[in-house]
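Incident review: delayed structure delivery

Summary: a single-chain prediction request sat in the queue longer than the usual turnaround. Root cause was a stuck worker, restarted by the on-call engineer. No data loss occurred. The affected request and its eventual output are reproduced below so the record is complete for anyone auditing the incident later.

Affected input:
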Amino acid sequence: MIPLFVDCTDKRIVIFGGGVVAFRKAAYFSREGDVLIVSRSFSKKISELPVQREVLDVSTVPDTVIARIINRAFLVIGTLPDPALNNRIGEICQDLKILFNNADGKAGDVIIPSVTRGNNYVLAVSTKGSSPAVSRFLREQIEMYYPELDEMILLQQDMRELLKHKEPSQSRRNAILQEVLRDQAIWEMLKKDPAEVRQQLKRRYLHD
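Output delivered after worker restart:
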């Protein structure tokens, strides 16, 4: 498997199951996707999401009914409590060449990572399904130790553009950006006054 960011705008995402795991997956994809949740019952939280719902007991219907529901889906997710049912849905997806993620059962061809995001970045962490707890831990560490990551990205963007006009040496430009990135004092200053940090760096590196 290789990591990949995908624009899911208006893409059909079908989730089987109506419990806590289904809610988490639906909340994740409803930011962009056209989400349909299929289950014989639904948790209260699911009613708060901008998703469609279809009442169905998957264990009582033939494969043709499932195939009809997932027709044209971009991604299907199995979160049913019975791994055998999830595996069955995965096999139908395989026959139809539809991407499948399995929350409980035989691994599908898509892993949904632990994600942290800001205005200027998205970071995804995965242990390939071996330890969701480790993925969550790493995400939390990033959020805890780098709360100014958004500001640093903006600072780096500004510095890159300014250095292009002031510093002819590309290797020197790269060295300056790395120096700024690794300076813990700058990270601390970004918490208090990002604008002042920019002015100080201009004076230091650009002689403004």
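Verification: The helical segments are 20-29, 63-70, 83-96, 132-145, 149-166, 170-181, 184-192, 194-206.
Action items: add queue-age alerting; document worker restart procedure.
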